[in-house]
Amino acid sequence: MRKRNTKFIFVTGGVMSSLGKGLASACIGALLEARGISISIQKLDPYINVDPGTMNPYQHGEVFVTDDGAETDLDLGHYERFTNVKLSQSNNVTTGRVYNEVISKERRGDYLGQTVQVIPHITDEIISRVYDLQGKTDISIVEIGGTVGDIESLPYLEAIRQIRTQLGKENALFVHLTYVPYIAAAGELKTKPTQHSVKDLLQIGIQPDILLCRTDRFLSNELKKKIALFCNLNVESVVTAKDVDIIYEVPLIFHKEGLDDIILESLKIWTKEPDLSKWENIVTKIKKLKNNVTIGVVGKYIDLKDAYKSLHEALYHASYEANSNLSIKYIDSEDLEQSSPKKLLEGCDGILVPGGFGDRGFEGKISAIQYARENNIPFFGICLGLQMAVIEFARNVCSIKDAQTRESKKRSKNYIIDIMESQKKIGSKGGTMRLGQYPCELKKSSLAYSAYKKAKISERHRHRYEVNPKYHEKLKKSGLILSGLSPDGTLVETVEIKNHKWFLACQFHPEFKSKPFSAHPLFREFVKASLK
Ligand code: GLN
């Protein structure tokens, strides 16, 4: 491969969190790709966990899993959905990982004689991880997690300040996302938070080159001029990042505002005009959807939509292909333990039980699955959803009344879902599950095969427990179809039942590989079946 002179775009965030820095970084990537530029995207996260794998989804949202089994920040999901990048462990750097490395080096004696400090040792470690992606693509977009002003982000900001000094402004660009609120009482958009946020950056030696202003309406030229004046910028470098209903419209809005032009001009890169047709087509399509479909998602983390980010998007991708407006009804699995499934699931055209950890709500999930199975409602189980579906089948079809998973606190003689020998020896919790891409072979004439249209597939995993091989025969005899297995036949990857509209569960997480322009085959078929 030709070694490239990779240029860097650093994306920082100001004022407050949740302004959509991840989405903005992904959309910058999409616009650059539309011009034929090769990119990579990296996220630098300021927390001390080595990765988000051990964090509660309520705190941090979904854990996104890459092919190589990295448990990463959910923003990496945006990066893969909006661009063609293939991400891996090196695309997500955390403070935990950086300190881990520096402390190991210190113990090894690599710094003999020196006092190990944040500057230069921690910052050098960060810089080396940013440079790890050098030479591979034309541009590397680097998103800094957190908000400017946080204590935790300081070493990262110092690191990117140094990189800019090393590479010069034609090779390293600072994009800063801020907030321009509309104050209804004054009838005005306010620029002060942006001015302060830029001041914070200036204090640590960073002059942003481009401001992305998150706001609910387009900024007038007057207002842009005012922001530009106070923040030492040209007016063209002040870009509206307007709220949208359809996130796939963001690349188009950024382009209309001239963002890609100004980025490329600053980095002195000349390209063809962008081909944005696929974005235009998808947005036009979404605005004209005809049918309606309601999917019930029975889970535990339903108060925070970010906990099921990829799942949420994958359902939307599938509904676009089905020319259908989607409404997702999130149902708390614990509520299903108090109330009848009919009452809570009424009106759902399809029922989905997603992944999850810990036994809270297990019985509610099982009763939702029983309801879907017995009432011929399309059902899709993912990871924990497969495990619960197999337990439901074992209890209610195979008459193994105490069928259980070892993840439950309830003791049982029949662990239909169990921990494998290899997992038993593992003591620590971080990064020790079955993680990342694994192959699977599908039975011809199965629902799974007809969705993928091929027998050999591979999908991403993130779980500790498996269907217990001791019960495979018994389950099969009672009619459970083990339609996808690991190549050696020991691990169950997909299950189905006969004589049902559509009933399929998988041990892997297909949602991580769904794209707006090509829905994942299983999601596509599930939504299609739900529409019928
Ligand atoms: N808790 C289950 C396991 O560890 C399922 C995990 C998941 O749904 N991702 O096997």
Strand percent estimate: 15-25%
Helical content, roughly?
Answer: 25-40%
Q: Give the tally of structural domains.
A: 2
- Give, in spatial order, the strands making up the sheet with the most strands: 13-12-14-15-23-22-21-18-19
- Strand tally is 23
CATH architecture of the largest domain: 3-Layer(aba) Sandwich
Runs in which pLDDT lies below 50 for 5 or more consecutive residues are: none
Distance between the termini: 49 Å
The rough form would be described as globular
Task: Write a structural description.
This protein has 532 residues and is of the alpha/beta class. The protein has 2 domains: 275 residues, P-loop containing nucleotide triphosphate hydrolases (Rossmann fold); 243 residues, Rossmann fold, CATH 3.40.50. A 9-stranded mixed beta sheet has the order 13-12-14-15-23-22-21-18-19, with helices on both faces. A 7-stranded parallel beta sheet has the order 5-2-6-1-7-10-11, with helices on both faces. α1 runs parallel beside α3, α5 crosses α6 and α15 packs across α16. The chain is globular, with a radius of gyration of 25 Å. The mean pLDDT is 95. The site of glutamine (GLN) has 10 residues, from β19.
Briefly say what this structure is.
The protein is of the alpha/beta class and 532 residues long. Helix content is 36%, strand content 22%.
